[in-house]
Design brief:
The chain has two domains: 30 residues; 66 residues, no CATH class. The longest helix is centred in the first third of the chain and has 28 residues. It has two helices and eight strands; from the N terminus they run αββββββββα. A hairpin with a 5-residue loop joins strand 6 and strand 7. With 120 residues, the chain is α+β, with helices and mostly antiparallel strands. The strands form two sheets. The chain has a four-stranded antiparallel sheet with strand order 4-1-6-7, with no helix packed on it. Strands 3-2-5-8 form a four-stranded antiparallel sheet.
Length: 120
Amino acid sequence: MQKLKKSSKLVGILFSLVIVGETTVGLTQQKGLNFISEVRGNVQIKRAGQSRFHLAYPGDLVNHSDRLQLGEGASAKVVCDNLEVWNLQSRGEFQVSNGCSSTTRTVLRRENSNRDGPDR
């Protein structure tokens, strides 16, 4: 009975490690986290790998490979992973990667700055 309990714990731990490993791989492959902050009028999303558009709502997450479609008089704002805001204000279909193209941010530092803060 003691061996069975130890085996069950070991299987549980190994299963957890596999799940965490798979999740981490998926997160690192994603280019960035963009979200729709504002929607006015008929704005729709077409996810990568899907064949149809569906209504977009504020707070929806969008990947670089997703497409947004705006109807007549519609507008939307997307906050990109680099913290820039992409304003869509014309009718048409737009790939998210065209409006949120860069995932890099420039960090400016003083020439002699210490990364970890002052010594104590």
